[in-house]
């Protein structure tokens, strides 16, 4: 990282309020890992066992980890390794490789001026069906943003996104089973979507007790599949305390996001989490955010509006929530609640 990067000196923009810096509880979050092998092979008993574990975790805090998930371990390792050539580019080149919400971002400083996260990101879209005219394919995106010499890396991340899409859609089936709705219900909702891929790099921070790599928030998307290195730093808020989540070899982290919480009428929780910084080691992770098509209406199945009960959230399109978090509101632990108020107030009243 060259001398023009802001991630060298901890200026006041990177210092977080004390309430956000509360230390994690001294106990690790020891949720059982969900073994997907039997589920992916169609074993009914294993599927029921996995769905019970998922349901318990999602009702408590919206977080679980999966093993035997079917994603090639070499692909996972290579995807982490190839982040090096990207984030080691000269800073002045990174600043030119950005367009709206895509490309490089340093501490999201283009959007915020305080409580900046101590991280760099590289983000791009992934069309599930590869038929959209609105977003380039991943390979084309890398070539257009970084040059033809990055085509090979672009092809790698396109393959990675395809694997994450397949796993994410399979997980929507398991979530459907756990909620007692038709197995394919949520899969159909997401299968023609356009997801978001984000590579995260958290540089060494000597004053780590004052900064955060990512502040407390819920992801506004459907599901998040996180692949992290072995440095550690992820924390989840559960039982009114922060709990550390140590990296687990060969496991992938799954977070429920705001879209899915609305889809199940609040039965499952959107996971509140944050990322710490490290005084001694750089940390890297890859986050795949499973998203529906932007015009899809987010509405729970009738079965989850129990016994004629009330809807917790109004109908809305993913494009509306995305606009809210990109233009008007910084994602935090209560994004969906505040979005609900905003979207209702923004719509004309029926006469």
UniProtKB/TrEMBL annotation:
Pathway: Hormone biosynthesis; Plant hormone biosynthesis; gibberellin biosynthesis. Its cofactor is L-ascorbate. Residues 193-292 form the Fe2OG dioxygenase domain. Gene3D superfamilies: B-lactam Antibiotic, Isopenicillin N Synthase, Chain. PROSITE patterns: FE2OG_OXY. Keywords: Iron, Metal-binding, Oxidoreductase. It catalyses: gibberellin A12 + 2 2-oxoglutarate + 3 O2 + H(+) = gibberellin A9 + 2 succinate + 3 CO2 + 2 H2O. It comes from the Eukaryota. GO terms for biological process: gibberellin biosynthetic process. The keyword Hydrolase does not apply. Belongs to the iron/ascorbate-dependent oxidoreductase family. GA20OX subfamily. This is Gibberellin 20 oxidase 3-like. It comes from Cucurbita maxima.
């Amino acid at each position: 990282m060259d001398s023009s990067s802001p991630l060298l000196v901890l200026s006041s923009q990177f210092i977080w309020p004390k309430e956000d810096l509360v230390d994690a509880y001294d106990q690790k979050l020891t949720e059982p890992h969900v073994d997907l092998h039997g589920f992916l092979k169609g074993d009914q008993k294993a599927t029921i066992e996995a769905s019970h574990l998922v349901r318990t975790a999602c009702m408590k805090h919206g977080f679980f980890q999966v093993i035997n998930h079917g994603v090639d371990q070499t692909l996972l390792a290579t995807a982490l390794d190839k982040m090096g050539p990207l984030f080691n580019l000269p800073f002045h080149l990174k600043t030119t490789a950005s367009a709206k919400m895509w490309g490089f971002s340093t501490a999201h400083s283009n959007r915020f001026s305080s409580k900046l996260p101590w991280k760099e990101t590289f983000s791009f879209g992934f069309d599930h069906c590869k038929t959209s005219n609105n977003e380039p394919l991943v390979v084309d995106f890398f070539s257009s943003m970084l040059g033809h010499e990055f085509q090979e890396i672009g092809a790698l991340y396109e393959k990675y996104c395809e694997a994450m899409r397949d796993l994410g859609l399979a997980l929507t089936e398991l979530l459907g089973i756990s909620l007692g709705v038709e197995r394919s219900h949520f899969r159909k909702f997401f299968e023609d979507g356009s997801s978001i891929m984000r590579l995260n790099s958290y540089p060494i921070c000597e004053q780590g007790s004052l900064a955060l790599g990512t502040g407390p928030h819920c992801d506004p998307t459907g599901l998040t599949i996180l692949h992290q290195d072995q440095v550690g730093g992820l924390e989840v808020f559960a039982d009114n305390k922060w709990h550390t989540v140590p990296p687990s070899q060969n496991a992938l982290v799954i977070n429920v996001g705001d879209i899915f919480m609305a889809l199940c009428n609040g039965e499952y929780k959107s996971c509140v989490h944050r990322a710490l910084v490290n005084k001694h080691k750089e940390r890297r992770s890859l986050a795949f955010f499973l998203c529906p098509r932007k015009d899809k209406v987010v509405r729970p199945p009738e079965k989850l509006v129990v016994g004629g009960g009330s809807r917790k959230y109004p109908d809305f399109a993913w494009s509306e929530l995305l606009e809210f978090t990109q233009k008007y509101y910084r994602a935090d632990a209560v994004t969906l609640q505040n979005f609900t108020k905003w979207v209702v107030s923004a719509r004309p009243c029926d006469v």
